[in-house]
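Open question from group meeting: does this chain pack into something compact, or does most of it stay loose? Before anyone orders reagents, we agreed to write out a predicted structure and look at it together. Recording both the input and the output here so the notebook holds the full record.
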Amino acid sequence: MVNSSKTPTGKAKKGQVAVRVDSGSVKACFPRSYCNKGQIKLATGISLVDGWESKASQLQRRLQIELEEGKLDDGEGNFDLGRYQEILKEYGLQARLRLVKSESVTSDDQLPPKPELSLMEIWDMYCEYRKQGLRETTYERKFQGQYKSFVTSAIEATKSEDTAKIRNWLVENRNLETVKRVLAYLSKAYQLGMKNRLLTHNPFEGMAEEIVNRGAQGKTQDDVEIETDNDVLDRTKAYTWDEVQAILGLADNKPHWFNFLKFKFLTGCRTGEAIALMWCDVEWDKERIMIRRTYDGRIKKFYPLKNDRTYKGEETRRFPMPKDGELWNLLKSIPQGAPSEVVLKSKGKKIIDDSVFYYFWKGSKGTISKKASKGIISTLIEQGKLTKYLSPYNTRHTFITHAVFDLGIDEKIVSVWCGHQIEVSNKHYQDVAIFAGKTNPELPATTNQQVQQQAEINLLREQMRQQQELIDKLLQDRDK
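C-alpha cells returned:
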C-alpha cells in the first residue's frame, strides 16, 4: 500500500485514501465513512512497473486533499466519478472506471451515476470519427486547429461548459460564418455521442440555424486572419497604396521579407500560395506567373491549388507579369534557382515559415529564448504612418481593392487573377479569362484600354501591310 498515514497493520487510517495494489492492479481505495454506499475502489491506470510507487504516492496525496475539501462529492452525497477522471488526466493516467465494492456493500447498492463526457472529449471523439474522410490539411488546420481553438477559447472565457454561454461568447467574439460552422459540427458531435449511447441529449441542436449573418462584434487581432473572401471589396479591411509603400519601406532592411511582402501586395496571393511559388511557375517568355499550389506550414506539405470557384474547373491561375513591370523586376532581382525550388525564401534560404512571418508582421511578446518584438505594423502605427492593424491575409484585400477602386480594373478580371468567387456565368468566364491575361495589373484601366486599342491598331496596320505585299506580288506575277 502507498499511503503516508499507515497503521501498524499496514492499512490506511480511518478517513484516509489509499492507493495500493488490489486484485493485481493499482486502485484508489476511498474510506467507507466517505460514502453511504460503502467503500469505493477505482482503477488508477498506474502500471506495475519500477517506480510505480512514486506516482501512486503523488496521486494519493492529491486525492486526499480533494476528499478533505469536498471536491469528490457531486453535491448530492454521491461520489463524483467525473472529477476523479479529471484528476487522472492531470497525471497522464487513463483507466476504465468501474466501481469495485467491498464485501460490506449490499446487493441493493447502486453504482455512481455515469459521468458526462466533457465538451472537448466529445469534440475529439467527433474529430477522430471525421478524420478518415477529410483532407489532411483540413483536419489539422480546421478541426484540430481553428475550430478547436474556438471551442477551447469559449470554455476558458466563460469558465464553464454551459452551451448557451459558449454560443453567446462565440457570437460576440468570433467570425459568425465560422461560428455557425463550429456550432453545426458540435451538434453533429453530440448526435454521434447519442447514436453510440454515450450521451442522452444534444444541447447544440438548432443553434447554428438560429444565427443571422449580421457580423460578429468585438473581434481581436488574432481573429482577423480567418476572414473569408466574401469581403475582399471592403476597403476598411485593406491598406491604401500609400500605406503599402510605408510598410515596404520599413521592411526594406530585411530583403527576404521585403520580397515576400511585395509579391503578396502585387499579386493578392494567399500566404500559402506565395510560399509555394516555384521557378517553374515563372514563365518569362509568356510574361506571366502560374499559381498552381499552396503550402501548409503546419504539416509542411504542398497541395494542388483548389480555388473558391472550383465549380468552373479552374485549378491553376495565370497572373500577368508585364516585362519590366514591378513584379517582373522583383522576380528578376532574386537569384534564379532550379525549377522545383521555391522563389521566395527565408533568411536561411529555406521555405518560409508563415508563423515566423506573422511575428515579423505583428510582433511577439517574447519568450525565455527570444526577445519580444513590436512587428512592422505596430511600429508604423506608433509612428503615425498607419491607422489600424490588419492581418497578413489582408495584403490580399489590399491588392484587390487597389486594382478595382484605384486602377478601375473590372472586378471580374481581378477575380480571375486572385481566385475569389464572383458571379460570372460559365459561358462568359473564358472570355473574361482571356482578357484578364492581356490586362496589366499595374496600370489604370484607362491606360490598359489605350494599350489594348493601340495593340489592335498595330495589328490592323500589320495585316494591311501583309495584304499590300501580297497584292504587289500578285501584280508582279501577272506582268511577267
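Observations to bring back to the group:
The longest helix spans residues 445-479.
Strands lie at 18-22, 25-30, 40-43, 100-101, 282-283, 288-291, 293-296, 301-304, 317-320.
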